[in-house]
Amino acid sequence: MSSFWSNYIIILTVLNIVGCLWLIKWASKKRKGEASEGEVTGHVWDGNLEELNNPMPRWWLWLFYITIIFSAFYLWLYPGLGNVEGAFKWTQVGQYEDEVAQADKQYGPLFAKYAATPITELAKDKKAKAIGQRLFLTYCSTCHGSDAKGAPGFPNLADKDWLYGGSPESIKESILNGRSGVMPAMGAALGGDKGIDEVVSYVQSLSGRKTDAAETKAGKAKFEMMCAACHQKSGEGNTTLGAANLTDTIWLYGGSAGAIKKVITEGRNGQMPAHKNFLGEDKSHLLAAYVYSLSQ
Ligand code: HEC
Ligand code: HEC
Predict the structure, then answer these.
(1) What is the tens place of the pLDDT at every residue in 88-135?
(2) b/e per residue, 76-101, with b = 16+ CB within 10 A?
(3) What is the arithmetic mean of pLDDT over 27-44?
(4) What number does the ligand 2 atom closest to the CA of 269 have?
(5) Is ligand 2 within 6 A of the CB of residue 178?
């Protein structure tokens, strides 16, 4: 924070506290012409209901003073006045780091033990899977869903269809180093709408859809020339590139003619972020076991 804003906050805070103190003093002062404590003020209601000048109980007043003294101590010990650190030098980041270090110390050995166990075995271990599931809910469910079944653009991890392969090693690799699927925009290369529609028909025919025969035949020739390098001639895809299998009925971006056309025309670049630095080897290992177990 710049020193201007720091001073601004310090002045505002101190003025507020001094203001409270002044307000209590001012309100508890006896004014000229006011009835003394315990006497009748002169206000009368409903014929004979009189108001006495009964002050607030002392302990009540003292509570106000105590909160003011408390705030002074608090601001001395903890950060609250602009950039002033406070005597305890407490920070949010510091507390977070302490807690993480504490947790690492406590759970580190447990994670290390699991890290030495092969993923296929961990996938059968109830306790390991429960920890993996908790990690998944924390770090992965925002994109892949809490049931790991994904959403358009975010692959389902609970089925047997894999962009990058479903072996324990591939799954762990996806988690540690992330993935980036590059489907280039092919609209221009296909010569516009007519060419695109032909390829769309062919792609739909690969998964058993009924399509126009002539269009599909023209699309097949284009597919073999421009798409087969990544999706293979058969359309079954390539797990090294993450090129989707187009012969099944599982779609990352949707299987309608419109959705397929959009992918082909504009291209796609699905990004799975790398988690190696963030989660580390051991947690990624447990996560891989959990994900692997989902499709077993
Ligand atoms: C450079 C390699 C490459 C080429 C060439 C390529 N694709 Fe792709 N394609 C990919 C990758 C990788 C993905 C997955 C994209 C992602 O994960 O975001 C993909 C995804 C798709 C999808 C979406 C599948 C789904 O499940 O939703 C369709 C449809 C598709 N490609 C069709 C084609 C067609 C038709 C052509 C040729 C005109 C083509 N692709 C050319 C790499 C390629
Ligand atoms: C910011 C969103 C995001 C988060 C967070 C995320 N993922 Fe992903 N993940 C993706 C996307 C998008 C893909 C598909 C990449 C592509 O299209 O090429 C993917 C792909 C994968 C794959 C490969 C799937 C396949 O079919 O081969 C695995 C495994 C995976 N994620 C696991 C995880 C795990 C475990 C976590 C939690 C540590 C996680 N992901 C967190 C977005 C995310």
Answers:
(1) 999 999 999 999 899 889 988 888 899 999 999 999 999 999 999 999
(2) eebeebbeeeeeeeeeeeeeeeeeee
(3) 83
(4) 17
(5) no
Using the atom order of ligand 1, give the atom closest to the CA of residue 270: 18
Q: What proportion of the chain, given as a percentage, has pLDDT over 70?
A: 100
Ligand 1 pocket, residues with Cβ under 6 angstroms: 163, 181-184, 186, 190, 199, 203, 223, 226-227, 229-231, 241-244, 246, 251-253, 260, 263-264, 268-270
Phi then psi dihedrals of residue 280, to 5 deg? 85, 165
Q: Which atom of ligand 2 is nearest to 290's Cα?
A: 35
| Residues counted in the chain | 296
Nearby residues of 88 by Cβ (< 8 Å), 6 or more positions away = 77, 78
First to last CA, the chain: 53
Alpha-carbon dihedral of residues 160, 164, 167, 173, nearest 10 degrees?
-140
* Residue 242 CA, closest ligand 2 atom number: 18
Write down the pLDDT at residue 107: 86
Average pLDDT over residues 141-148: 97
Rounded to the nearest integer, the mean pLDDT of the chain is 94
Q: Is the CB of 273 under 6 A from ligand 2?
A: yes
Q: What is the mean pLDDT of residues 10-15?
A: 96
Contact assessment for residue 242 and residue 166, using Cβ atoms and an 8 Å cutoff: no
Question: What pLDDT sits at residue 54?
Answer: 83
pLDDT band at 35 (very low <50, low <70, confident <90, very high): confident
> Residue 270 C-alpha to ligand 1 middle, in angstroms?
11
- Least Cα distance to 75 among 3, 1, 5, 18 occurs for 18
Distance CA 176, CA 254 (A): 27
Give me 60's structure tokens.
Answer: 């009540």
